[in-house]
Structure formats: C-alpha cells, structure tokens
Amino acid sequence: MDVKDKKKKLTLKNFSGGAAAISSYAKGSGNKSVLVEKKKNRSIDINQSVEKPKISLAPEDIVKAKTLTKEDTAKAQKSAQEWARKKIQEELEIDNSKKLIKKTHGKKREYKLTLSKALTDADEDEKTRSLASFKRAREKEKKLVQENDDSAVEVKKVSREISVPNLITIQELANRMAEKASAIIKFLFEKNVKVTINHTIDRDTAEYIVGSFGHKVVKDNQIDDE
What we know:
Elements: H1 3-8, E1 9-11, E2 22-27, E3 32-36, H2 70-106, H3 115-155, E4 161-163, E5 167-169, H4 170-177, H5 181-190, E6 200-202, H6 203-212, E7 216-218, H7 220-225
Parallel strand pairs: 4-7
Antiparallel strand pairs: 1-3, 2-3, 5-6
C-alpha cells in the first residue's frame, strides 16, 4: 500500500465515530480496518413548498354561526357577572383566611392556658371583684354620710319671724324666709296650686306657707314696737 492509502484507513481502536458513518466493512489479512466515506452535506431549499394534506368536510359537519339574540347576550352578561362576583368572593375568603391564620399563628402562645396562668387569672378576677365591692361600699358610705348631713342641716334650720304684707310675690317671700323659691313652688304644687316665681299671693296663703316651713308670722306693728 501507498502512504496515501494508509492515511485513508482508520483502525477500530482509534475510531470514535458512529455506526452511521461506516459505509463498508473490509477484512484485511493482518489488522481489522474499515473504510470511512465522507458525509454529504444536505442542502434544504427554503423556497421549496411543503404540500399539506387537504381535509374535506361533509356538509353536515360544517357548523353555521349562530346569531345571538338579546336574551342570549343578557344571559351571557349575567353569567359573566356571577362568575366575577364568585371569583372576588373566593379571593376575599382566601385573604381573610390567610389573615386569620397569620393572626392566630402570631398569638398562638397567648392562647395556651397553663395551670399557673389559670391561677393567676383567678387571683386577678378575685382582686377585681374585691376592688369593685370596696368601691361600692365606699360610695354607699358617702351617700349615707351625705344624707345624714342633709338631715342635720334640716334639723339645724333656724326659725325666723316673718312679717307678711297683704300681697307678696313668691320670690320675695322666699327671700324673707331664707328659703329657695323652687321649694315654695314645689310645696304649692303638691297642694294642687300652680304658681310661678313672680306670682303674687295674698296674706292668708303667705302665712300658711310661712307656718308650713317652720317660721313664725308677725305683724308689721309688732316688729316696729320691738
């Protein structure tokens, strides 16, 4: 063999190609060898058109376009609105559930009730109750003291000598007796007599009011003599 023929031969030991590259197989007398042919480059024509199989449809397979009426349009809009409302409701429920899970997860330790915490809470409740009862007792005591003070004031009321003219107003009579005009009006109202603070009453009525309030009626000439 020539040197050129030896370059074209490739032994199986040094061959790293695939089976598709082997075109012929030849046995030598001494060493195993194969002849490798050069691959031909495939050229694809871009302008070459590929024919697609034509599908023929039967007349009954052809679906005609349906004309939509107002009722169909209204139904479609209604279904779309219901779907959107349902979708929004689902998203809101998911968000609320996520917030609830996050909140409960963050306060998980607070919801654990241990024996010591239960005892502590019981003690706090008892303290709160005792404090509230103490406040009620104090308020009751203050009320009793105030009532006693009012009764003491009433007991210590001074009896005065009041001169009554023939005609006098409720306000003037209250000033002479050192009483409240509202007290005189209330007293007369209980006797089914309706008066105002500027109402004028006669001497007999004024003397009756003075005696009812624990005062003494005197005449003007008696005061002058004294």
